[in-house]
Amino acid sequence: MIAHLRGAVAAVSLNSAVLDLQGVGYHVMCTPSTIADLRLGQEATLWTSMVVREDSMTLYGFANAEERDMFELVQTASGVGPKVAQAMLAVLPPERLRTAIASSDHATLTKVPGIGRKGAERIVVELKDRVGAVASSAVAPAGAAWREQVHEALVGLGWSAKDADAAIDRVAEDVGPDPDISAILRDALRSMDRGR
Q1: What number of other Cβ atoms are within 10 A of residue 187's Cβ?
Q2: CATH of domain 65-135
């Protein structure tokens, strides 16, 4: 099995690249985001997964090992082959894909070409337990550190953990990319007062 390739980028197309490793060119199928980072003549490293069929051997390349591992995991669901798995990663980064599966977010999964409602449901049923442990921290939105801080503050003020979680959920959608903990705490406290 070829785990990764490092070499000069010899060619780039819409869905593949060729890496030159000491005079041998490896043709690698890639997602658009991976291709966007490649530059002709510059050295690049691609984490790879080789798919062997009766009539072909195809290398799929990814920017990092997390993408490659997710590509291999989603293929274990029935009805998901390498092309659909690659489409999943082209539409959803690994963290978002993991979150969608762990939280049974069928709407997000159906944004991927080739996945309908039934396919999304099957993927969730077959993979939810397998990504659940990995995705437990990923289910929270990015910057989830603020959640823990606000939760600890609310519990420290005498609220139950359940009430703290409910208040955080009520204000979470208004939290921006650079959260102000004191403002979030005030909003959570206001939401608790309204909930009484």
Answers
A1: 19
A2: 1.10.150.20
